[in-house]
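pasting for ref
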Amino acid sequence: MANIFQNIFTKSSKLNIDELIVKKTIVSFFFFFLFLGAGLWGWKLLRHQTETAEGTRPLLRTVLNINGSIFKNLLSDNHLTKVYPVSDAIKNVRVNGMDGLRSKLDSAHWRLNVIRKNGDTLALTLEDIKKLPQTDIVFDFKCIEGWNQVTHWSGVQFYDFIKAYGLTEEASMKYVGLSTPDKGYYVGIDMPSALHPQTILCYEMNGKPLPLNQGYPLRLIIPVKYGIKHIKRIGTMYFDNKRPPDFWFERGYDYFSGL
């Protein structure tokens, strides 16, 4: 008798398990086809959208703007990029683009032209900038192309530069715009990122003056952002409450480009 009841319960349990497997399989296929259909619909929608003046389709631009807003809200002075000992820094530093560097540099007459709020221009030599306290940073430089390197840079903390040259009123604006002397490359930086304690106006790499292909005489190092924001050979700096033009934003990338 005991064996009969045991066989009944065993068959009942087996039937329940089989039914559960069938139900889960049906649900899995349902969601698979649901997500597949949603993906195909989204792909067709994206494919038929016209590229805007901002270098990408409206749907993608909306997603990029949302990503930028999220990263922007997470940024604070306590959000510090990991730093490394100088011994970890690579010697053969990779170049991430030559836009803005292809024209010949007149180093003798180079100036950092800072346009003040009242329209006046403050023309600074490299020596003017090097008079300020030097700071170093060794961090993992990340490029949108997918590579990264631990690199060593030296220069002036952007925040110290602002204070030293009386640009506090200008720094109360929302953005700083930077461009190369030939206007071939340009970026817009949100002010909180520019004033971040790890952002520097850089004039040395691995303890030596910047090479030409790394932005001599002066470049931006901003560890909280991808390499596309680290503009080389800065010629002009200005401030605005509207987003300044940005080279890679116009080609379909995220304006904030934060890490």
